[in-house]
Design the sequence.
C-alpha cells in the first residue's frame, strides 16, 4: 500500500446554507419539527419558504463538506466530491470550498435542477431546524468519481444524507470498493434518524459486510439503527459490527468504542450555545484529523469536542478562529 497523499476525501451533498434567526412560534406555524431536517421536493417549495425567512447569512455547507473544511482548517489535506449545478449558488460553493484549500474538481451539472440549498432557522436556544432542497446534489453519478483521489486518501468519509437518492448511492458504493481495494479506511456518518428510517437495512449491511472502519452517530441515531431505546445496548451491539464506533452525546460529550474498549470525553465548556449547525460535522473533523495523524482515540475525541464547541459558539458551520491553534492549545 502506497503512502496516502490526502488525509480525508469526502463524498456528500454540495449545499449552500442560508441561516436566519427564528422562534418556536414560527416553526410551529410553518409545521417544522424543531431540531430536525426535512426535505423540500421542489424549487417552488424552497422559494416559498425562503420568502418567509428573515435576513439571512449565506455560506457553503453540506455535512461532509463542513467536515473536510474543518479538517483543512486543522492543517489536513482534503478532497471533496459532490455535485453542483452551473448556476450562481454552484459557483459560490465551488469558490468557498476551494478557498479553504480543499481539492474539488467535480464538474458542474448543466440544466435543472439548481444547486442544493438548505434553509436553516436558528432559535434563541441555539437549535437549528433545517429545510433542504437537494437539487443537483442528488444527481452525483458514479462517472463523476475521481478514483485516484479516493485511492490516495487515508480515509474516505461518506455522508448518510447522500445515501437517499439512487444515483449517488451507487457512486458511494463504487467509492467504497475503490478505497478498500487501495487498503484505505472508510468512515460513515449516519447523519439523521430519517436516513435510518429509509435506509437502516443498507447501513446495517455495510457494517455486517465489514465495509466500514469508522461509524459516527448521535444517541438518537444509534438507538434507531439498532432498533432499541436502550442506549447502552445499542452501543454494545453496534460496536461488535464496526471496528470503531463514535457516538456524540451533546452536552454529555462523546464516546468511542474500539477493540472492546470504550473511551469517553466530556463536552468542552462554552459561554453560550449560539447555533448547533455543524456541531456533529466539526466533531467528525477533529476526530478524523486526529486519526489520520496517528493520534490516540482519547486525543481524537478531545479534538472533536474542541472543534464542536467552537462551531456552536457562533452562527454557521465553518470555523471563525484559528482552529489548528485552538486545538493545539487544548491538547497541551
Sequence:
Amino acid at each position: 500500500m502506497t503512502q496516502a497523499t490526502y488525509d480525508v476525501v469526502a463524498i456528500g451533498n454540495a449545499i449552500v446554507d442560508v441561516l436566519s434567526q427564528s422562534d418556536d412560534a414560527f416553526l410551529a406555524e410553518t409545521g417544522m419539527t424543531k431540531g430536525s431536517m426535512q426535505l423540500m421536493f421542489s424549487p417552488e417549495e424552497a422559494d416559498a419558504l425562503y420568502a418567509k425567512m428573515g435576513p439571512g447569512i449565506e455560506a457553503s455547507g453540506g455535512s461532509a463538506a463542513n467536515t473536510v473544511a474543518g479538517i483543512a482548517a486543522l492543517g489536513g489535506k482534503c478532497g471533496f466530491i459532490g455535485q453542483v449545478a452551473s448556476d450562481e449558488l454552484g459557483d459560490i460553493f465551488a469558490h468557498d470550498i476551494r478557498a479553504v484549500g480543499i481539492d474539488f474538481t467535480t464538474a458542474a451539472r448543466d440544466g435543472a435542477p439548481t444547486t442544493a440549498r438548505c434553509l436553516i432557522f436558528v432559535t434563541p436556544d441555539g437549535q437549528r431546524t433545517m429545510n433542504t432542497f437537494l437539487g443537483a446534489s442528488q444527481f452525483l453519478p458514479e462517472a463523476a468519481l475521481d478514483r485516484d483521489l479516493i485511492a490516495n486518501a487515508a480515509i474516505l468519509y461518506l455522508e448518510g444524507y447522500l445515501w437517499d437518492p439512487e444515483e449517488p448511492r451507487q457512486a458511494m458504493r463504487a467509492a467504497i470498493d475503490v478505497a478498500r481495494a487501495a487498503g484505505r479506511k472508510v468512515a460513515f456518518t449516519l447523519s439523521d434518524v430519517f436516513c435510518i428510517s429509509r435506509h437502516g437495512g443498507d447501513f446495517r449491511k455495510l457494517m455486517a459486510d465489514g465495509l466500514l472502519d469508522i461509524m459516527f452517530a448521535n444517541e438518537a441515531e444509534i438507538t434507531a439503527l439498532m432498533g432499541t431505546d436502550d442506549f447502552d445496548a445499542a452501543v454494545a451491539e453496534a460496536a461488535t459490527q464496526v471496528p470503531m464506533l463514535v457516538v456524540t452525546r451533546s452536552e454529555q460529550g462523546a464516546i468511542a468504542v474500539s477493540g472492546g474498549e470504550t473511551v469517553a470525553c466530556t463536552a468542552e465548556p462554552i459561554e453560550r450555545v449560539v447555533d448547533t449547525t455543524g456541531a456533529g460535522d466539526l466533531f467528525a473533523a477533529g476526530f478524523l484529523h486526529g486519526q489520520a495523524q496517528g493520534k490516540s482515540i482519547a486525543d481524537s475525541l478531545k479534538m472533536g469536542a474542541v472543534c464542536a464547541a467552537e462551531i456552536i459558539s457562533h452562527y454557521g458551520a465553518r470555523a471563525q478562529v484559528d482552529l489548528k491553534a485552538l486545538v493545539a492549545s487544548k491538547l497541551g
Remarks:
- The domain at 6-331 is CATH 3.40.1190.20 (UDP-N-acetylmuramoyl-L-alanine:D-glutamate ligase).
- Residues 104 and 129 are 28 Å apart (CA to CA).
- The chain is about 40% helix and 20% strand.
- The longest strand covers residues 15-21.
